Amino acid sequence: xxxxAVYASADGSEQRNGNSGRHAQRxxxxxxxxxxxxxxxxxxxxxxxxxxxxxxxxxxxxxxxIATAQPVVAVAGGHQLCMAYTxxxxxxxxxxxxxxxxxxxxxxxSLNYETGFITGGNVGTWSxxxxxxxxxxxxxxxxxxxGGSQRSVQAQIIEVRDTVPPVVTGSTTSENIAVxxxxxxxxxxxxxxxxxxxxxxxxxxxxxxxxxxDRFADWxxxxxxxVRGKWLLAxxxxxxxxxxxxxxxxxxxxxxxxxxxxxxxxxxxxxxMRRVSFDxxxxxxxxxxxx
Length: 291
Prior knowledge:
By secondary structure, the protein is mostly beta strands. The chain folds into two domains: 4-22 and 175-290, no CATH class; 32-172, no CATH class. Helices cover 9% and strands 50% of the residues. The chain contains two helices and 23 strands. Strands 3, 4, 5, 6, 7, 8, 9, 10, 11, 12, 13 and 14 form a twelve-stranded antiparallel beta sheet that branches. The longest helix is centred in the C-terminal third of the chain and has 14 residues, at 236-249. The chain is globular. The chain starts with a strand and ends with a strand.
């Protein structure tokens, strides 16, 4: 998720400012299938060991944890593992601070597995898997009894940066284009099910004497259209492609071109994704369409 401030003008145009910086923050909602009470006890003990939300820990993001020939970027004093998210010529570099051993480095050097920082070696690529630094988003964990020794566990987890990575430069994200420009070539995000469109014009209503009112159209001949539905993502690759558009565009910060809808932007600074099966995903659709 990002934090974007959107200011609408009287003619329907927008000014958008990114208030969350370059990097998104991730959050996860966990609701397990039915598990044995021993595993539920493990989850409870883990919460108690972390003192609720006080201590951070490593967490595997099931939606984004595989690196294949990803860039090693030069930073002050060495090199940093990064993930590159690319959409139509724009690239966002995300520092990776919690790689999982072993990691393959084409440029050599000594890797710190707690920071993702490489001492020595050269610029190259890396391959492997990685985790993120996270904590419980709150001081509670819910355990539901399903009968006998069967339980389910519900928890909220959020990404933190107790280990601050060095500054990584070189991204060519949409922050470098005109505020209201449309970046990249036309894309075709699959909009599969449950699509609805909401049309909205802005009218100012001023009440007068009994039952009397004056109405003024604040946006002359300009309408907003909200397109809502679901994205069906058939693979980890498709999920990563959608995530790349969101990260390169920094949430609501930038517009992009859709093959069916024209100029659009995300209507929310949060991209909500669900894992449906082992290699199948679903994401909530929320786009703001320009007429």
